Amino acid sequence: MELFKTWKKNMVLYGLKSQIGTVYRNNDRTTSFYDVGNFLYLAGELDSRFWEDFVRKYGLDYKIIISENTNWQDFLHRKVGLNSFTRYSFKDKANFQVEFLNNLVTHLEEGYNIVPIDNHIYN
Where are the transmembrane segments (predicted)? Predict the structure, then answer.
């Protein structure tokens, strides 16, 4: 958990503090993976052997893999079968102006629709 102490992501900080999920470390404790739900956070030094062992043992089905370390990010971008995408951050509190948003929806011009943003629309 020491390798995550500089992280600012709420899911990581709260999850580790609350002992939610599982932390995996390599033998010399220079690399840690924090596995919580569909998220896998990678911290510390790049250890490709530890990565391969983890993937072989646990798999990556439905995992969103995140690292603040550029070495890990570069490594992940080179891995065949992994898709990179932009996601929105989680905030402590959402500040939606519900009345304003509802008003926009009710006054849409004919022929316009509101749809979820998917990979096709985003790119």
Answer: none
39: which strand partners? Answer: 36, 64
Three-state SS at 97: coil
Q: What is the DSSP string of 67-94?
A: ES-HHHHHHHHTSTT------PPP-SS-
Low-confidence stretches of the chain (pLDDT beneath 50): none
Q: Mind listing the pLDDT tens digit for each residue in 48-78?
A: 999 999 999 999 998 999 999 999 999 999 9
Cα dihedral 70/7/17/14 (nearest 10) = -100
Number of other residues whose CB lies within 10 A of the CB of residue 15: 20
Structural domains of the chain, count = 1
Quote the pTM value: 0.71
Q: In CATH, what number is assigned to the domain containing residue 13?
A: 3.40.630.110
Mean pLDDT of the chain: 89
